[in-house]
Amino acid sequence: MKNIVKTSVFLGALLLTSCAKFLDRMPDDQLTLEMVFKDKTRTEDWLAGIYSNIPDPYWSFARYVGWDSMSDDMAPSTGWEQFDWTVIGRQIGNWNPSTNWSPNYWVELPRRIRSAFIFLDNVKANPTQLVTEAEVNLMKAEARFMIAYYYSLLIDTYGAVPFQLGITDPNASSEELLLGQTPFDDIVNWIDQELLAVSKILPARYSAAQKYGRATSIMCLAVRARTLLFAASPLVNGNPAYANFKNKKGENLYATTYDASKWKAAADASKLLIDEALAAGHKLYYEYNDDGSIDPFLSYQNMMFRRPQDGNNEILFARMQCDIFEYDKHATPRGTGGNGGLGITQSLVDAFFMENGRTIDDPASGYVEKGFSTAAEVRNTKWIESQGEGKVTLAGTYNMYTHREPRFYISVLYNGAWYRRENRTTMFYNGNWDGGPTHDAPQNGYLVRKKVHPDHDPRNWTNPYRPGILYRLGEVYLNYAEALNETDPGNPDILQYLNLIRERAGIPQFGKGANALPVPASQEAMRQAIRRERRVELNNEGIRYGDIRRWKIGEQTLNGNFYGMNFAGTVRDDSESNSDAFFKRTVYQRRVFAEKNYWFPVPQVEIDKNPNLVQNPGWN
Prior knowledge:
Structural class: mainly alpha
């Protein structure tokens, strides 16, 4: 550290540049690390910089990081590829280890980790600046959280990665400087233990509003629980495809045999998180109708928009500032001032349950695909898009979209839906206000509605604030139910937490309440019920892509033709024989997912300069 302390840094680089640049020698009039950490404001700026690579779950999950677009949830306009939407190339298999990925976690996250270790080595109490020992201990715990969090993102993206704790002397040997990958489970075990330890230091919540978004004990437990769920899943828990995948030291990078105890560890971690979160005042977000019943439309919609100070205590971990304007604008119909091409897949449309809580392929669901409704559908809700009368669909709506569950209408903007701000219905027909042939139109007939604020108006730059939710209690309930079903099938907690999600969603529960549905009769049936619920409840929240990968279902779900409505359709017709009919299932894209796509490739430039690295399976 003596060498580092003598090294100069640009103060202006504290938030924006890599830690490697912090360590470059600069002119004598720049600040030394000693000067930085003697100043309270500059110390806090350094800590803020460590937080700066927390991903944006709005615009970045759609375009840059791309988790929503790379899943079978989101469908950005295929015409946007010409505008450097590289995520579309990844959808269709057009990428390799040399392809640019702007978030570049392999390089950028270790820079933040290194910055956090420099912080840990240098921050100290400073009574003259009113920095107490207690405050230093909390800031150190925050830095430790961020190190573990960034490692969780790295292993989620690349699998086994180089793993190092602390700063390496620049004069160290090449073996110490050029690290190979550490076995996946070794990193998971460290994250598990580190986050549990740090959770005992950090507060569960902060009373000062300006500290909202800073690391808490609940955030520690949330990252830990999700990491352990991933580690228990088929992709990395005895996957035979990785039996011979080793690092340059000959160590297996993934467990070669299945370990059922990993599911118990995941279940225990989620239950601990639930208990601690509830004790800290977290709970599912609800809004109610005038008669006291749950309003599932507003509950699900505003769970994404309301802040804790507005009564939303479901949020466990959020990024405070996100590019919500670009997200909303690109999901807003072209004829209303938006870019109108950020869509969702037909696969997601089909995944939503019917009003009676059944899947559309259930003979008892009442699902009708063809034809158009003859009357408006009125429900008990104060949803602002229901014209103040509870009209969730209008007469003339394509039957595919009628009698669906509330989360469908909050998540999907379809052709013929009421659009309050314009006092008209959406018109996605080719040649019409909101449709093609331009690239700024839904290429498969849908726009994403979830997370798009109903008061967004790009014409006058209106864009109400909301936090970018990365972890919420609803996910944890489903994580717990999934892990518990794997380790203790039949445990009553499984139904309890699954039903809490369905109750808030306004659909019948399994085995209880009005119009109850039969309880899934086997472990496999319950597994599929939980997976279906996750698909719907957590859609377009950056989670589905990870679920597909950890369950090893990528080849079935992300490989092949993707459907929507007929982008070239000009008329309100559903006839299969009419080429101008809009309302018919039509292929809009063919996606590619091979076994190698379960992990991002190690960037080729890193492979070229570090002989101790091995490329991820299938990417050579």
